[in-house]
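User: quick one
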Amino acid sequence: MHNERPSLGAPSLERPAGLDTNLDVSGMVDPDKGLVDRRIFSDEQIYRQEMRRIFARSWLFIAHESQFTKPGDFFQTYMGEDPVIAVMNKQKEIRVLLNSCRHRGARVCRADHGRTKNFTCTYHGWAYNLDGELISVPGEHYYNDEFDKAKWGLSAVPRVESYKGLIFANWDADAEPLEDSLGDMRWYIDAFMDRDPEGTYVVEGVTKWVLDGNWKLAAEQFATDWYHVTMSHASALMILSPSGKGPKKEIAERTGRQFTDEHGHGAGFPVHPKNRFDAQPVHEYYDYEFLKERLSEEQVTGPLTNGHATVFPNFSYLPVNGSIRVWHPKGPNKMEVWAWTVLDRSMPEDVAKAQRLYNLRTFGPSGVFEQDDGENWSECQANAGAFMVANTALNYQMGLDRVESREGYPGMTSELYSDAAGRGLYRRWRELMNTPAWHEEA
Ligand code: FES
Ligand SMILES: [Fe+2]
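Assistant: Done. Structure below.
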């Protein structure tokens, strides 16, 4: 459904030119040579441009469909830095509304999630219905006759679409459909989100934590980086290995594929006939032969279990433990991680519990793997803005020239150990950063 383009600013107001100056970032990333200018991780001006040219026009993950069952169910999240409310309206459609009162700008919803009949601003009491229309203004008679409530509804995100239970929204009314923008990435997502004919749901509640680190560090790692696993997660692998000695050679020397594409998405995974779920009850629950028929041999021996993925720009997931997460940008040096646990609807309770606990143990905020990753990103960020550091290019050259079309794997893939999807992510980043967005048109 194509809705109206949201208006920026207010009726009859005009902004001075130069308030939002865009930089040409062509020279800051060179995907062909595998080079990235470190200032893209720390520069405030670049960060502001990302908000305008990446987050204001990309499909951004909002929530899982199972979070909404009845009209009035709402969930508060962010699109870039903008607070939004996702809410099921009376027609049972999901609407995504800017959570900012049109009167003086207070948030009209301060609860994380819940069920409501309308959103009433606690500052002066303007009230909006589930479609964001302004329905009540205390003391309306103090305004003159020209005041028209119909013009002062909450800004609504014009495009809201879902794929396999995952709801995304886009401020660009003319954006290509979500499914087209996911493209070949759908096959990799299916290996995670389409194992169960009954679909998926998320465990209630979102785990949230703040990290010192630019959002791209996390998005990029989940798109492209299996390389860090044996080094960064050595102690975690040791704890989890049956002998207690790991990580074994088979882990370090695994082969696999890494998907990269022009939309900036990425996914990497070992390929092995014995790939399995790590939590034993989950492993025993799945019928891998059934899954091969439902999906494909390549999905089951690849992205079904182990691996990592990012949907550009800031939605990532891990199939083995059912973790889905958003890296909310909070300034160039900070991100807020929001993580959910996805479960198959057909899973018996004990299996679901095992998967939920496994996810918390490994990739919850104090999870044995998550802590390693967060520590790395904060370490990379720690001095990113220092003069000499910021002027020293970073290396993304692993697997240069090793990207090909390989039978069985949609799109272009590289080897498991490669920076291909990282280069793809920054290629897309550069393209969007250098292209005016819908809101810049006259
Ligand atoms: S700021 Fe919301 S009613 Fe005044
Ligand atoms: Fe990791």
